[in-house]
């Protein structure tokens, strides 16, 4: 059987593009020298927050707008998406940070101690108020990747190292710097803990002027803590300082994290362009999908849909639109 499209890269961007093309009836091949998703790719170390409104604090308008369809796309593929919203908190000395965050974002409700206690009993005793982003969601990135790989395999699409056929779509992340000279790496470090004495049912963002933290529950008392943001393409070597900052901030959120079991320390570099927005570009007959920065799971669905419209229907992608 002839192949319509070859996708280079089996990270979240490549797998979403392959899924979207296959869903539309195209024949697809996925190439990756490292094989199936794993520790070698930054998609493995993501938080999995589908939180476009929270991202609006610092991200450009397209991130918020395009990200609002992410949860529905993932759920439509059969991925387990948790729709519990998210919470934004600040310690007493950082109360102004919460007000600033509220001014810069949308679709939230400022809730008091009683409402917070009803949502997260372990936090209501420690915080007097919070921002509740009810429409947001989260998923487990590793399970999501495995699900896409499984669904593609059921369509006869395996991850291979065979020669490319058909039109090439490059989703290699930082590896594409050999062709995309303005692509840079932004290093992120994360920690996975088991804290059976802490119960959280939704992602938590703890604001801090220097060390902001997010915590994503993975179930069974397991939590992902992330993530640093360092201007560096280094893809290894988590530093003691960064890990200490993550752990200290988690302890400030709830002292029970001090007794947690340290399961993993992860580090990788996210691919980003100078404006921190993703791009779909054509060069030398190859379509490049890259620059998802720290919004991989949030923006990969929209990028995949726009890519499919471009390569199958000739419709040019529009990141910037509907801007007041």
UniProtKB/TrEMBL annotation:
The UniProt record lists the keyword Oxidoreductase: yes
Limits of the FAD dependent oxidoreductase domain: 4-310
UniProt KW Methyltransferase keyword: no
GO molecular function, a single term: oxidoreductase activity
Domain of life: Bacteria
Matching InterPro entries: FAD-dep_OxRdtase, FAD/NAD-bd_sf
GO cellular component terms, A-Z: cytoplasm
Keyword vocabulary terms for this entry: Oxidoreductase
PANTHER family in UniProt: GLYCINE OXIDASE, SARCOSINE DEHYDROGENASE-RELATED
Protein name, as recorded: FAD-dependent oxidoreductase
């Amino acid at each position: 059987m002839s192949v319509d499209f070859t996708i280079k890269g089996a990270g979240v961007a490549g797998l979403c593009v392959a899924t979207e093309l296959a869903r539309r009836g195209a024949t697809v091949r996925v190439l990756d020298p490292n094989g199936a998703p794993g520790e070698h790719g930054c998609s493995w170390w993501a938080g999995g927050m589908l939180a476009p409104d929270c991202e609006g604090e610092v991200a450009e308008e397209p991130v918020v707008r395009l990200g609002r369809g992410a949860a529905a796309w993932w759920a439509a593929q059969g991925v387990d998406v948790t729709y519990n919203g998210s919470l934004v908190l600040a310690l007493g000395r950082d109360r102004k940070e919460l007000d600033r965050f509220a001014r810069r974002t949308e679709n939230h409700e400022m809730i008091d101690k009683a409402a917070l206690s009803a949502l997260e009993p372990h936090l209501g005793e420690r915080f007097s108020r919070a921002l509740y982003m009810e429409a947001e969601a989260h998923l487990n990135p590793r399970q999501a990747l495995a699900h896409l790989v499984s669904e593609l395999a059921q369509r006869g699409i395996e991850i291979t190292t065979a020669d490319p056929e058909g039109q090439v779509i490059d989703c290699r992340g930082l590896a594409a710097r050999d062709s995309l000279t303005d692509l840079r790496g932004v290093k992120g470090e994360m920690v996975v803990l088991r804290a059976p004495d802490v119960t959280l049912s939704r992602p938590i963002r703890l604001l801090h002027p220097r060390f902001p933290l997010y915590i994503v529950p993975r179930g069974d008392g397991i939590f992902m803590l992330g993530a640093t943001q360092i201007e560096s393409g280094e893809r290894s070597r988590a530093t003691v300082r960064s890990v200490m900052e993550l752990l200290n901030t988690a302890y400030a959120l709830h002292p029970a994290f001090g007794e947690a079991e340290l399961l993993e320390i992860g580090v990788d570099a996210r691919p980003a362009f100078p404006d921190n927005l993703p791009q779909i570009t054509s060069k030398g007959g190859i379509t490049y999908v890259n620059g998802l920065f720290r919004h991989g799971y949030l923006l990969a669905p929209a990028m995949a849909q726009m890519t499919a419209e471009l390569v199958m229907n000739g419709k040019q992608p529009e990141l910037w639109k509907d801007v007041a």
